[in-house]
Amino acid sequence: MNSKFLIFVDASLSALVILTAAVFRLRTKLLNMFQIKSSSDRVLIIKFLGAGNFIAMADALKFDGCTIVSVAGNQSALKEFVPSAELILINEKSLAKLIFTVATTLMKLLVSGYEKVINLEAESSFAKLIAAVPYTNESTGLSNKYKSLSDWFFYDYHLVSPSNLNRDRILKILLRADQPQVNPVNALMLKALNESCANDLNARQDMAFISPTCSLTDGNRRLSMETWRIVITQLSAEFKSVVIAFPSTQDTQYKDFHNLLAELACPHVTAVVESYQAFAGRIQSCDLLVTIDSQALHIGQQWGKRIVCFYGPTSPHGVKLGKLTYAVSKELECSPCTHKYFAEPCRGSVDCMKFSQDEVVTVFRTIR
Questions:
Q1: Is 182 helix (H, G, I), strand (E, B) or coil?
Q2: For residue 176, is it left (φ>0), alpha (ψ between -120 and 50) or beta?
Q3: Positive or negative, the Cα torsion across 247, 232, 311, 196?
Q4: Residue 140's domain is classified under what CATH number?
Q5: Which of 43, 86, 185, 255 is deepest in the core (most CB within 10 A)?
Q6: Integer CA distances (angstroms), 246 to 215, 272, 275, 365, in order
Q7: What is the pLDDT of residues 65-87, one digit of tens each?
Q8: Using 50, 70 and 90 to split pLDDT, how confident is the model at 199?
Q9: What is the pLDDT of residues 285-322, one digit of tens each?
Q10: What is the arrangement of strands in the sheet containing 66-71, beginning at the earlier edge strand?
Q11: Domain span at 48
């Protein structure tokens, strides 16, 4: 029997497995709600296929209290590279052995408690069951880009399909031993792209256009008012006119911008509410567009405009940047996580959209 059979079984029984897992997860959430904690200091890590994954994560796995659930085919690699870990192995060599070892695994976990459970199988419903059965103080794991409801329910903390991120770093973040840092691979790519376009952004400086809004599905893309204050201060010193456009007075940041402009008292900086046609026309006539990942960005790119765009939970590498688009991104290891989550992977901290004054000032100095 091979891994294809395991995948077939997992998919066939997915609904039943998830429903069963949900019962156990609900038990854990209720106990945690009443501050009934596991006294164990052990960590359970779930990863079925790919012995090479464990070799890549070996350094992060070498800690006291590590328990690993995997398949029997990975036993040799685990004993060689993670000798201190307790192993719970599922034998996939035959259907009878599979059923027996799954049953014994579930029974063992049912009476076990853990400080933390980490599920490294993003798309496996069976792995969610394994993660949900034992009692744990915190459940973390990988999520896929399709943002299922079960990820919100099953995990206290999760990462969304990390790109260009090695497994050792993924595990350390899920262990909460480290916070997401700058992804060096993505940062290097973005630096090269920005260097190629920075000189092309120097042009006439009559009118800068700011579009701070985005779709209602992802308010986390928005910049804070403190960041916009720094942006406006920079632009007002360089441009004869700065226009900030909103589709409606009901926009969540409309009043905040009016209060900010009243405080800054710059007569050549104005906020307007205008139709879609006027909004598009404003982009077409501006000398520089400053925005977030939004429709304004794509309109500006279509018309070959000079653009500074701030990215956070979305990726500058996900769409065509254009040679005149200067992308500003912290390139954190947890980004992109996209949108439409019931609870953000970072539980609302949105560090990817927090830019310091020095970071913002450096951007506009670079493109002068």
A1: strand
A2: left
A3: positive
A4: 3.40.50.2000
A5: 43
A6: 12, 6, 9, 27
A7: 999 999 998 999 899 999 999 99
A8: low
A9: 999 999 999 999 999 999 999 999 999 988 888 777 77
A10: 86-90, 66-71, 43-46, 116-119, 139-143, 157-160
A11: 3-174
